[in-house]
Amino acid sequence: MDAFIVASTRPYIGKSGIVLALLAIASDQGRRTAYFKPYGTMPATVDGMHTDLDAVYISRQASSDAPLDLVCPVVESRTFLENVVAGRQGDAREQVRDAFSRVSGGVDLVIIEGPSDIFQGRSVELSLCQVAELLDVRVLLVTAGERPGLPDAVLGAADCLGSRLAGVLFNDVSPSVADFVKSQATPFLEQHGISVFGAVPHDAMLSSVTIAEIVEELDGTVLSAEENVTATAESFMVGAMGQDKAMRFFRRRPRKVVVTGGDRSDVQLAALETDTRALVLTGDLPPSAHALSRAEELGVPMVLVALDTLSTVERLERMFGRVRLHDPAKAARIREMLTGSVDVDVMLGALIGKNARP
Question: Which of 16, 108, 151, 224 fits as disulfide partner to 31, beta carbons 3.0 to 4.6 Å?
Fold first, then answer.
């Protein structure tokens, strides 16, 4: 049985999507696969078992049908946090070791989803480096490629992982930094003895969100063009300026959601003259009849929410900041981009220490 960890230097840079893609690739190569997540942070109860929400979906893409409470044995719930700080929590490491032993039985490959940064889980001795040592596996470290910067987190992980760090994968690399990643960041890491497997480019489709998902998240009411809530948006903008400035501002970004007050008809009408997929009206203030009629005419959903603008923006930032994995089209796209950017056989070979194909 082979196993390795896919971890990341910070949250929301596509780690789970890479796990999904690698599970599918390994399965197509004839391997019987299992998924394991030692430490979860999205508590959920499914079929009476306490587990992690993302782990529920990803584990179902693996060959193994291990119980969910074994797939993710430690979950950061409120009760868990209280027990840790009060010194009542049991040995989480032993819990993880036992669950991993049971999940890995009868399979060829276990892909372990590691923490969202190199320190997560440290309070219960389940940080990235501690889990890699506990389970005696190598690590694929996913890092962001969204802006130029020093790879301090990668070097920090390398310091404690040592030879367990198989290499680094840049993910979600925006066009503006692609050359920096290729010509500067990659050689720099390689000079420090860290392998770089490649760079997966940014794709706006992967972080897109349907208007229906926004309505659900914001507990909103659709006032117009309800038939178009299946449309997707790639970003959002906040409109709090005058109409003339708003028009120029909104033209900068296509396929967007605009957040503004329900009483700002001038901003709403300006947004409707650009590529806007939905208007989110905050403060539970309904729009004017003219703005509502124009939105209906153009087929743009207006969504009325009771939240204030700040609370709305905070929720939308969480939505647009991560890839929503439960969409089969997005999972397929992640795999396509990974295989098109990286020699996956070489990467798997480095992770399991042998020829990647069974």
Answer: 108
